[in-house]
Each structure stands twice: as C-alpha cells, then as structure tokens.
Amino acid sequence: MHLSIPTSINYLTGHIDAENVVCKETALGALKGVFADESQRAKGAQDQVVYKVEMLPPQQKEGELNFGVSHIEPGSIGDEFHMTRGHIHQRKEQAEFYFGSQGEGLLLMQTEKGEVSIERVFPGSVHHIPGFVAHRLINTGNTRLSALAVWPAVAGHNYDFLDEVGFKIRIFKSSTTYKVVYMDKFD
Ligand SMILES: [Fe+2]
C-alpha cells in the first residue's frame, strides 16, 4: 500500500495547491463586446485581469471530470459588474457543478428556450447547472469572487452562444446592491 498526499485546495480562497495547476487569465482586452458599454470597456486598461481560472490539467476522455476554480475580480465596466464571458457547453447536454468559495455574486443561467434564472453565490453555496443551460458568473461584491467547478471532460465550451443568442439579462450596480436589466433586443 502506498500513502500519498493528494492535491489540496484552500476553501477560503479557492486556491488549488498543486504543482501542475494550469492558469488562464482573461483581461479586459479579450472581452470586446461582452459588456453593455463597449466604449467604456475599450477605454479601460486592456491588460487589466477581469477573471482567471486555475484548474488541474484538463482531462480528455469520455467519462472523465475536470476540476477548476474561477476567480472574478471586483469592479465594473460602467455600472455593469465584472463577469465571465459565459458559455454553453459544446456538448450541450453535459451538466456542471459550481461551489461558492469566497466573495459574493450571482450565477446567471439561461435555457435554450430563453428562460433565465439567477442564484446567489456565496461561500458554501452549491449550484447544479443542468445540461442545455448557458452560464455566467458575476461579481456583485467588493472583493474577489471565487467558485470551484467540476465538469465533464468532454463538455467543451461554446462561446459563439454569446453572438448567436446572448444572455437576456445584465446585472448593474444599484444604490443598494444590484439591479437586473433585461436587454432591449429581447423585447
Ligand atoms: Fe461550464
């Protein structure tokens, strides 16, 4: 029998403690057209990191699982909170779990029929994202939002969804917390 020390995570920060972690940063410059106010996005520092994902080396095989953590920095573009680009899975039927780690925010989900729902994300929150549902994380707080994720290796990411359909709602700052705004093109 061999006893080994496995990979660990810090549940308070969502940081994965492993030598082979893969990290991908997404800066403002890569988010053209994602936020409602494109002119504000274009004016900002294009190398500013909006969110990053750290994950264990991606698996490929059918039946395998991936594990990663998304970190969304606090802030806004105009009054629209920082968020991930959002996606639906390439293999749309594939589901996913998110787990809130630190900070506070929202998980936006949208079915193919256009039914929208939002869930509060907070330390300890558990989110089941069914298949055929597009999803995006939004940081509505003043600190970094981190959420763990477990998804099937074969799920893949389809970002064309944004151009073809897009999310029906956006989340903006309000005097108290946030407000939900429905986009005109869906009226
Ligand atoms: Fe996903």
Characterization of the model:
The structure is a single chain. The chain has 187 residues and is mostly beta strands. The chain has one domain (9-186): Jelly Rolls (Sandwich). Helix content is 6%, strand content 42%. It has helices at residues 38-43, 160-164; strands at 8-9, 16-17, 22-27, 49-55, 65-72, 76-77, 80-81, 96-102, 105-111, 116-121, 126-129, 133-139, 145-152, 169-173, 178-182. The strands form five sheets. A six-stranded antiparallel β-sheet has the order 3-4-5-13-8-11, with no helix packed on it. It has a three-stranded antiparallel β-sheet with strand order 10-9-12, with no helix packed on it. The radius of gyration is 17 Å and the shape is globular. The mean pLDDT is 95. The structure holds fe (ii) ion. Fe (ii) ion (FE2) binds next to loops.
Task: Provide tags for this entry.
6-stranded antiparallel beta sheet; Jelly Rolls; about 190 residues; single chain; about 5% helix; mainly beta; 15 strands; 3-stranded antiparallel beta sheet; binds fe (ii) ion; about 40% strand; globular
- Can you give the helix content as a percent range? under 10%
- The number of distinct helices, counting runs of at least 4 residues, comes to 2
Give the averaged pLDDT, no decimals: 95
**Small ligands present:** fe (ii) ion
How are the SSEs placed, and which strands pair?
Elements: E1 8-9, E2 16-17, E3 22-27, H1 38-43, E4 49-55, E5 65-72, E6 76-77, E7 80-81, E8 96-102, E9 105-111, E10 116-121, E11 126-129, E12 133-139, E13 145-152, H2 160-164, E14 169-173, E15 178-182
Antiparallel strand pairs: 1-2, 3-4, 4-5, 5-13, 6-7, 8-11, 8-13, 9-10, 9-12, 14-15
